[in-house]
Structure formats: C-alpha cells, structure tokens
Design brief:
By secondary structure, the chain is of the alpha/beta class. 39% of the residues lie in helices and 22% in strands. The model has no long low-confidence stretch (mean pLDDT 98). The structure holds nicotinamide-adenine-dinucleotide, 3-isopropylmalic acid and manganese (II) ion.
Amino acid sequence: MKTYKIAVIPGDGIGVEVVNSSIKVLKALEKNKDYKLEFHEFDWSSEYYFKNGIMMPKDGIEQLKSFDAIFLGAVGHPDIQDHITLNGLLLPIRRAFDQFACVRPSILYPGVNTPIKDLKPFDIDLVVVRENTEGEYANVGGFQYQNFPDEVAVQSAVFTRKGCERVIRFAFELTIERNKKMHLTSITKSNAQGYSMVLWDRTFEEVKKDYPQVTTDSLLIDAACMDFIRKPQNFDVVVASNLFGDILTDIGAIITGSMGLASSGNIDPTKKSPSMFEPTHGSAPDIAGKGIANPMAQILTAGIMMKHLGEHESAEIIENSVKNVLDLGESISPDLGGNSTTSEVTRSIISNL
Ligand code: NAD
Ligand code: IPM
Ligand code: MN
C-alpha cells in the first residue's frame, strides 16, 4: 500500500487546535482508501523557543527533507517578536525547500456571508499565486549604528529574472489547468519601484507570449486592493510578489467570509523537496485556547496537500465535505456567525466525508 510520510508541525495558538482537527479528518478519510498516511509530529513552536532559545533544531531542515509533505498550523506568540518566530521556522523552510509558488484560493462558498453586496455563491472564485522565496521577503539587510540616534536600517528586496519567470509561468499553467476564465492578472508597483517591479513586468510580457490562450492584465497593487473589493468576481488567477501576495490574500480571505476558510500551499512544483501546507491565517492569540477556531482553513489546506500528493479523489471529498457543512449551516463557527466549537465543526465535516 502507498504510504505518505507527513511531517506535522502544529506550532502555536489555534495552529495546534486546527491541526488536531485536520488529522482527525485525514484519518477518518484514510479508512476507505488504498493509501496510508504516516504522521510524524514535531514540537517546534514558541514553547520550544522558550525552552531552547531557537524555534527548531539546527538540523531541522535536514530532518524534514525525507518527508513527502509538511503540514503546519501556524507560529506566532504574543511574548516573542514575530520576526524571531517567523524567521526561525516558517520562512527558512519555504526558502530551503524552494517552495516558490504559494497557492491561495478564495472561493465564496454557499452558506457563507460576504461583506461585498449582491454576490452569489461562487461569484468569487480566484486563486492568488504568491512568489514565496524572494522579493520583499529576501532576508537581506542590516542595521547600522544600532540603538544610536543615527540608526539606519536597510532591507533589500531581491527580484531575480529566474524567480519572476518561474512563478509567472506556474501561474499561467495553473490558469490553463483551472480552465475557468482563462485570465491571469499580474500585480506590481512598477510606477514607484522602478527596477525590481519593472523586471517583473518585463518578464510577464515575455512569458505571456508562450500562452496565447490566456488573456492577461497588469494592475498596480493599490488598484488591485480596490478591485478585490469593488469587483472580485472579475479575477481568475492573480500572480503577485511575496509581500503583495501576502496582503491580497488576507483581503481574499475576508471577502469570502473569514480567515478561517483561507487555505494555502507552499509548493515546490518540481517536487524535488517537500512542499508545506499551512493555512493563510496565523496563530490567532485572541481566540487561542477557547476551542472556537474555525478548522476549515486547515482542513481545506489538507485537501490541497492530498491533491499535491496525487490523491485527487481525497482532495475533492475534503473540499465537498466542508462545502456541505457550510451549506447545511448547522455547524458554523463564530467567525462565520455561528456558535459551534472547533470540535463540533470537525465532527460534522467527518460525518459528511
Ligand atoms: P491571524 O490570522 O492569526 O488572526 C487575524 C484575525 O483572524 C484574528 O481576529 C483571528 O481571531 C481571526 N482568525 C484567524 N484564523 C481564524 C480561524 N481559523 N478561525 C477563526 N478566526 C480566525 O493574524 P494576526 O493576529 O495578525 O497574527 C497572529 C500571530 O500569528 C502573529 O504572531 C503572526 O505573526 C502570526 N502569523 C503566523 C502565520 C503562519 O504561521 N503561517 C500566518 C499569519 C500570522
Ligand atoms: C502568511 C503570513 C506570513 C507571511 C508571516 C507570518 C511571515 O502572514 O503566511 O500569510 O507573511 O508570509
Ligand atoms: Mn499573511
């Protein structure tokens, strides 16, 4: 029987709660399938940091290498500066495994309220492909005269032709695979960022010649934020730099109901390294420990993981089950206006599989 080795990093806050739910769903689903999931849990988190002064062991990346996928909740703790937490675990993993395409769907499911008026279910059905290893998140910079009145901080964005080209090409391929509006929107700020984003724009113009069946447009990030709210139904696939993709996907989450529905995959399309599956949301310290986090984003993320592993039927079953539970409206967590707990929502999803 096929066995997939999954590295599980629950992390912090609600990450632990929603990963727990998702593993229950995956285990229930596996019962009638011809594959086995072998979970190996890692306690790398802020608690680990409090004990050891680091987020993960020095050979952490090495330990993850042999897995078929990494399933992560979220990291982030109110008592640790976020750049320590995230630069100690999440961002190094994305870079080390060259997970250059971060894929984040935003779909308006039946039964879910959107703050945008006059939209019907599935009127919003878009995917943001976020460049995930360089751009504004390149770990390049430093402080000069630290803690003196004349202190200077430099943080450089790094855009390479190779980095732009591969993520743009991935987005074109995804647009064709989806076969919906066959439209790709590229997002930059090349009116102000005259080098890096101009390289991106030029690369987009070159790559698009290889995909004549896809219509395209280019938007500036500020206008794109406006259009995500003004006319989100016009988008199909959107490709953006690391930071712009980060910002757009929180908007994409909230116009389709909640951060609690926003799934995501950090993909190495070459499959040379394990990809990492984590929802768009964070550790949500404001609701952590209350048992009311919406597990759907993490469960849908598990669906993206199963698709990446080649288990398309399981991926579909997971998405359909979440869709049914939303549509039935009986087990809805508080972020979506209901009063069901994380466990109640999880149980409903399992019984709808
Ligand atoms: P957040 O996504 O954790 O929370 C934003 C808001 O959305 C909060 O009101 C929260 O209650 C709500 N929310 C998020 N997920 C939810 C869910 N599943 N169900 C119900 N409500 C949900 O963002 P934040 O508050 O800016 O960040 C909290 C911490 O998480 C920070 O330390 C941040 O750096 C970190 N973070 C980590 C990741 C990650 O590990 N992938 C992603 C984003 C933020
Ligand atoms: C996300 C998060 C991370 C990011 C943070 C926590 C570093 O916001 O995955 O969207 O910006 O990539
Ligand atoms: Mn984000």
